């Protein structure tokens, strides 16, 4: 764990003692000041620490001043930050377990050195419990986002702000990216529709040569490589315990069921499949899940361990598992070097992301942009005629993929302790929005599959849209059922309650 720590002149002595304590425990930290004898305005130090934590450069922060109150008030002004004054063991513990506070604040004029060190130990050892507290923390962040959006709206309307007593006219901001995110699957659906329409009515636009053709018509492989680096960076090696277990279980179930479906279709119907749905398309649609939708559903129907599982579940983004399945089952001839070539970008992202929190955060920021332009390169080779031809088969594929939610729900919960069970198993019954890129990757590895690429791309795109809209309703149904029957985390014995309800 890496900490950010800061103080004003009123709490310099306490900060020094806390840093000595951290040194004795081998905990890494960075001192943001103040220095000995330096007189500062504590809000300046608080903002520096809070911004560093919010950026992901440090996992948590410690701020000390005379009372701790001013530091807490200031730190909480930084979006994404939850800071709490911690002056007793119970409040300190609950600030982490119930409120998921990333910054603890203490006052040198309120508590002694030994108590401060004791509270630091408690705070560092506690993790967010999630459960019944998760919706409350989510609501806190929703309110924060609501007020930020109001501010953005004022800015978009050309509103005026006062800064240092002067009125400043703000530049209009259309906020296009966030508007696309509000539409389920918008970052894939919108560019895909645009690209398909252009490819249908003005196909020459993608083939004018130069950078345009290289990027949008011939850029699938390059875009996919970059996308896999981004995906690899999200896999956090520090995720242990239940998040790790859930991630492995979800990924394993998803992979095995996809392989089973593909094998059944291949053995019964041969390489051509049934209704135009080939075995490798079946595997691609079922083995890959919509990570963005999973995260969204976990915030509503799951807990912290479910959200943490995305670090492992992210492995099924992209073509790797599809290539492994096709090679293992003999449904396609996948050279070993193709698997390695697919794995290397993931490993680059994984290693770099775990060595550099800033890189992981940058990749998280870049992911929507990469997804947007990568989808354009997919749609550039697909026209309306192909999609209409694939329509029925794509819809059937989507319904089959959505139906697997039921299987995932029951199997996943069988693998969990009773107190951990919830509706999140059903949340992986989706076809990944980026699965539309998998057929092209399969064709790159095995040219004999190229004849199916265009149709398979359209089918996967259609299936992803179908599951995108159906899966939330399926998860909500199981969640309602479990709540009504007080099963899993909704039971009095569920870990979220720990024998008593807490805020």
How does this structure look, described?
With 503 residues, the chain is of the alpha/beta class. It has 2 domains: 2-135, Ribose 5-phosphate Isomerase B, Chain: A, CATH 3.40.1400; 177-490, Na+/H+ antiporter like fold (Up-down Bundle), CATH 1.20.1530. Helices cover 61% and strands 6% of the residues. The chain has 21 helices and 7 strands. The strands form 2 sheets. It has a 5-stranded parallel sheet with strand order 2-1-3-5-4, sandwiched between helices. Strands 6-7 form a two-stranded antiparallel ribbon. A hairpin with a 2-residue loop joins strand 6 and strand 7 (166-169).
CATH fold-level name of the largest domain: Na+/H+ antiporter like fold
The coarse overall form would be elongated
Q: Uncertain regions: pLDDT < 50 for 5+ in a row?
A: 493-503
Portion in beta strands? 5-15%
Largest sheet: 5 strands, parallel
Radius of gyration: 25 Å
| Total strands | 7
Work out the count of structural domains.
Answer: 2
At the first level of CATH, the class of the largest domain is Mainly Alpha
Number of helices: 21
- Straight-line distance between termini: 26 Å
The succession of helices and strands, N to C, reads: EHEHEHEHEHHEEHHHHHHHHHHHHHHH
Mean pLDDT: 79
* Amount of helix: 55-70%
Arrangement of strands in the largest sheet: 2-1-3-5-4
| Assigned CATH architecture of the largest domain | Up-down Bundle
Helix/strand/pairing category: alpha/beta
